[in-house]
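User: Here's a chain of 113 residues. Predict its fold as tokens.
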Amino acid sequence: MQEPKQQQDTPELEDKPIEQTGAASEASEATDPQHSADILPSLTESLRQAELERAVRLLARGDDPHKVLEALSHGLTNKLMHGPTRYLNQVEVEHKAETGQFVRQLFNLPHQG
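Assistant: Prediction complete.
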């Protein structure tokens, strides 16, 4: 039976580049609001599954569970927020207020007075 690797032998947990899955590509191209609502569950599930599989691999090789959980939560948050954040950064100036209002509604945030 092989002993788990010592922590100093394992490289630090690092964020991997965000890869668009087929579901992510479809979601970014969707213009129909109903289609967007329909695609979100499969998008989030595929992202969740990928991060979970990564966490299981890291735990199996003996990485610190606390660091693995940190990487899992960080990776999932980054992957879920990457597309919307990129979109918000690219919105034309004349549409920023309208987009901001939409984001506040989407995330149930308080309205700015």
